[in-house]
Structure formats: C-alpha cells, structure tokens
C-alpha cells in the first residue's frame, strides 16, 4: 500500500513544489490548508491574507489532482503563539512566533490531526533535511530553515518529510515553472507566521498600551530623548528611535522594562551591541538529553537568528544550573532576549535555548 502523506499547502510555491515531488515519488497525497489566523480577535481582518492563501491552496491541489482539506487551528494558534507573543513583549523580550508556530501548530496540532485521519507522515515546504528523527541543514544554506525548526523533537521529525531539503530555491522555482503551477511566480510571504506583514507597533498596541519613558545613552548615562514604551523596541533596532543630532546612528542596546528606560548605543560598532557570552533558559535537545549538547568534547556552532552566521562555541559554564552561559569564539551582533540560540554540530541541528536578558558585551 502507498504511504499516506498529508502535506501542508500554504498557497506558496515551496509547499506546492513539495507536494509535486512527493506525488512523483509515489505517495498518496492529501493537501491541507491550515487556517491559523484571521485577525478577527484583533480587528485587523483586512490585513490578514488567509482567504487569498486558501484560494491559492485550493488551486494548487486542483492542479496536482490531489484531495484538499482545511484545518482550523485558530484557537491553538492564539493560545500557544499569540498569547505568548504579547506576554513576551510585555516582559520586554522579543519573541519568535515562527518557531512557536512550528513547535505547537505545524508539527503538533497538524501532525496529530493528520495521523488521526490516516496519515503516515506529514510534509511541509521547509528547507531542511531530516533522517531518523534528526535535523540537518538544507542544501541551500541561504534558504536553510533549521533555525525555525530547532524546538522540534525527534518524535515529530520521524513523522515529517521535507522534500525541498536537497534543493535550492532557484531549483524550486524552476520546477514550479516547468509543471505550470498556478502560483509559480507568487512572491514569498513576509512578516509574522500566518499573520503576514504588519506594522509591529500598531499590532502590539492592540494589547499593550503606550507609556512614555526615557531614552538614555548607555555610555554616558545621559538622557537624550523619550519613547512610547520599551515594549515597542528590540535590541539592535535603529529605525524609529527618533534621536537625531549625532554623528552616527543610535541603536537599541538594552531595555529596562520595570523602569521603562530604553538604553541606546552610538554607532553599530559600539561594544554594548556585541556579545560573546550569552545566557540561555529552557534549553531543549531535538533528541536525547540536553547534556548531550553540552558534551565538552564536541565542536559546536551557534546561530542566534535565521540566516545568521554559524559562530563556533568556545565553551559553556553553569551547565548544572538551569541557566547555562554559552561562550562564543567571536562576538555576535545584538542577541535579543526572548529569541532563540540554536546549536549545531557540523550540519546537524542539536536543539536550542531561549536567550535571556543577562548577556555580557565583548
């Protein structure tokens, strides 16, 4: 009997080509559109692209001659992604909703429902490779999405197929064109996972009210302006600070959410913006125990953002505590508390941890 695969069809070209490749490999396919967000709870339905995405998803499945289904995970998305998103910003952190969406929605809620309806595997259009429950870098290093998948577990990956893992994005586009996919020329989606491209500050103000505070130069300690609330800024941000009259631009270096003070640093090369030692919380291994990650005999690298440089790790301290510190071989640009640091050994992703606010400069 053919293995049954439920493939997430988002309406984009990547998931469409992934479905095509699986069909040519002989799998019995069902295309699934996940309705995770409509914007109804926040009064911004006009900016939500879900209806257009759904129609594209249906068109793709008709073109490929496969069954199409729609799953509604709005309740789960609101609970596990959006509630966390707003809570972290209220704490002064910068969360990564795409990573949480993958962990709780695409590879949990979707996986469980698909299996309950007869699927042997699920599949997505992510650029990554998986083998025996392990996660590996994509052949296209520029497009690689393992960072976004670094919170998954081996039990999820064992039931997942990534057909694009050995392709480049250019090759994916070529395949889409060669089989006349209706969305072959559609642009890649941008912005928050399933929410789309929005004005972040306006979005946050749906739940977080502005409160005036001081902007302070982190080197001189002098007050140089004011802001509407530290929650609307992220470390490393340059635009939107609205402090002028300096020879170089200011960047957000640190946030004091309790006192509502925004600390800024002059010039991108300012040491306050570069970190070699990064404290983590909630470290999670994809397979095995987190102690396997902290084996001092391993040569590991770290990535602190999607498409970020893989930086060699010199060592670890505080391993027996709940908040280990990762020592990098070179300073990384502006690690933001609330974001994730992913661990790699060669081309294998081992897991990740959440960056905390306690980091030291170079």
Report on the structure:
This protein is of the alpha/beta class and 362 residues long. It folds into 3 domains: 4-200, Rossmann fold (3-Layer(aba) Sandwich); 209-269, SH3 type barrels (Roll), CATH 2.30.30.280; 272-361, Translation factors (Elongation Factor Tu (Ef-tu), domain 3), CATH 2.40.30. It contains 8 helices and 17 strands. The protein has helices at residues 13-24, 50-64, 74-90, 97-116, 154-157, 169-178, 200-204, 290-293, and strands at 4-8, 28-35, 67-72, 121-123, 129-131, 134-136, 160-161, 213-217, 223-227, 250-256, 261-266, 274-285, 301-303, 311-317, 325-333, 340-345, 348-361. The strands form 3 sheets. The chain has a 6-stranded antiparallel barrel with strand order 12-15-14-13-16-17. Helix 1 (13-24) runs parallel beside helix 2 and helix 3 runs antiparallel to helix 4 (97-116). The radius of gyration is 22 Å and the shape is globular.
Give helix % range.
10-25%
Order of helices and strands: EHEHEHHEEEHEHHEEEEEHEEEEE
Number of separate structural domains: 3
* N→C terminal distance: 58 Å
**Rg calculated over all Cα atoms:** 22 Å
Strand order of the largest sheet: 12-15-14-13-16-17
E-strand count = 17
Q: Name the structural class.
A: alpha/beta
The DSSP helix count reads: 8
CATH topology of the largest domain: Rossmann fold
CATH architectural label of the largest domain: 3-Layer(aba) Sandwich
């Amino acid at each position: 009997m053919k293995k049954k695969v439920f493939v997430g069809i988002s309406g984009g070209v990547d998931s469409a080509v992934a479905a095509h490749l699986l069909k040519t490999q002989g799998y019995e396919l069902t295309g699934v559109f996940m309705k995770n967000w409509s914007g109804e709870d926040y009064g911004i339905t006009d900016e939500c692209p879900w209806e257009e995405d759904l129609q594209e998803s249906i068109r793709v499945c008709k073109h490929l001659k496969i069954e199409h289904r729609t799953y509604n995970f709005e309740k789960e998305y609101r609970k596990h992604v959006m509630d966390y998103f707003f809570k972290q910003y209220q704490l002064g952190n910068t969360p990564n909703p795409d990573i949480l969406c993958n962990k709780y929605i695409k590879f949990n809620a979707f996986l469980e429902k698909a299996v309950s309806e007869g699927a042997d595997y699920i599949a997505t259009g992510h650029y990554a490779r998986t083998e025996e429950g392990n996660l590996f870098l994509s052949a296209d290093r520029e497009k690689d999405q393992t960072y976004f998948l670094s919170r998954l577990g081996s039990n999820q990956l064992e039931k997942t197929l990534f057909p694009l893992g050995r392709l480049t994005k250019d090759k994916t586009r070529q395949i889409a064109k060669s089989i006349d996919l209706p969305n072959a020329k559609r642009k890649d989606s941008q912005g928050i996972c399933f929410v789309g491209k929005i004005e972040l500050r306006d979005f946050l103000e749906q739940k977080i009210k502005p409160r005036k505070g001081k902007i302070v130069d982190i080197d001189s300690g002098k007050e140089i302006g004011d802001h509407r609330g530290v929650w609307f800024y992220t470390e490393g941000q340059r635009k939107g600070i609205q402090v002028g009259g300096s020879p170089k631009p200011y960047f957000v270096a640190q946030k004091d959410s309790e006192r509502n003070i925004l600390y800024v640093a002059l010039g991108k090369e300012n040491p306050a913006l570069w970190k070699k030692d990064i404290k983590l919380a909630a470290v999670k291994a994809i397979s095995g125990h987190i102690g396997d990650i902290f084996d001092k005999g391993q040569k590991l690298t770290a990535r602190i953002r999607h498409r970020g440089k893989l930086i060699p790790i010199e060592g670890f301290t505080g391993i027996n505590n709940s908040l280990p510190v990762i020592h990098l071989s070179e300073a990384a640009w502006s690690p933001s508390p609330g974001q994730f640091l992913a661990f790699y050994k060669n081309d294998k992703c081992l897991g990740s941890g959440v960056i905390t606010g306690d980091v030291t400069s170079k």
